[in-house]
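Protein in question reproduced for absentees:

***
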Amino acid sequence: MGLELRQQLKLSQQLVMTPQLQQAIKLLQLSRLELLDTVQQELMENPLLEEGQASDLGNEIQALEVHEPVQEISKDRDEILTRELTRNADWEDYLGEFSSSGKQMQMRESEVPEDGVSFEARLSSKPSLEGHLFWQVRLSDFSEKQKQVSEIIIGCLSPAGYLQSTAEEIAAMAHTTPEEVEAILRRIQRFDPVGVAARTPQECLLVQLDVYEHNDPILRALVSEHLEDLEKRRYKPLARKFKITLDQLKEYLEVLQTLEPLPGASYSSTEPYYVSPDAYVYKFNDEFVIMLNEEGMPKLQLNSMYMDSLQGCNSSDKEYMQEKMRSAVWLMKSLYQRQRTLYKVLDSILRFQRDFFEEGVTHLKPLILKDVADDISMHESTVSRITTNKYVATPHGVFELKFFFNSALDLDDGSQVGSESVKALIKQLISDESSKRPLSDERIAEILKEKLQVNIARRTVAKYRSALGIESSSKRKQIF
């Protein structure tokens, strides 16, 4: 068969992800803080976009359609006046149909700034472990050489305050002897916090016993030889070995509990992670109202100066301005669509999980993305994106939207209960248990069978308990 060139027509359909569509999808899955950064970045890059004192995004979108030619936007003075009126619209109408509360419910009292107090006076920096130790080194009578060795030692500390290098390695870096390093190390270990720069938990606790003058040989033996037995609560064999009673052993344990096994923990450099809710759910009379959080969100509008100068631009400048115009309008429409989708998803979750908003976590029902997607006639991927890194403030606390989607466990009557409800009940049972007779995983499964009529295996209880960060019954047991 010979090879030949041939032309033929072929009709096909394919989905093309335009840059505008990619931007709209990206905005859906951004958290609130990431969205603020994205909007601020667009404000800096797009000259046709500006932040106004008050505007109505819904009216801006209705006044400016993306597919409408830009040349027709400023035909005459009437349209310019209409556009100005649009820009000066009241921003509190922005929520519109996306708020189930009235304007009176949406108004919140603004914070009154403190008079006579500067902004810098309200800020404080958390001291670091390294800075605290360097300060003590400078106050000590160390020589310059010893200060250099001390700085190397402090630089080799872990966040918990433990030394991560050997004396030989530090001596090689400081060009000194290991004996000199050990001498300086012993002095640093008696700095505040006591026990810092120790190499093992035993060394850390023994240094604290020396400083606090606890010289009891049994106490020192418990630290140096039997920390693992104490961790696993092997109290009776220890009492027999040291020929003491359990009450005497309890007194030793009380002394050990006053010591700090992680001396650097109070100087941790990790900062707390603050969550800004994307929406609030309040109960008003017998109904729940949803209010989207618009605090700090820039009020976007088109720059009137650039809009009015479009007619006097040359072809290349006009093409550039039209492109920025389309980008600005598309961003405002995407933000409008994001808020609309978020409200619809929240409203659907509120209908499905009304018992949770009324009673709490124990009444959380099984829910999957497909249920919400079918309810609001959207695709599951859209619901997944809009619930990622989004938080809602409820009467029972702040929760991520993903929290409301949980698997189901079958009940004896054929109905189902949410896994998060079972976890909450397990946590409650363990908090109410006797410390001397803690509940085993098998016993918890039996109680759940009796109370909820839920079919749950012991290994499932163990999995939920581990997810809650709760130890096993053997480690929760207290003999005193």
Summary: The radius of gyration is 33 Å. The chain has a mean pLDDT of 79. Strands lie at 49-51, 279-284, 287-292, 300-302, 391-394, 397-400, 408-410, 416-418. The first helix runs from residue 19 to 29.
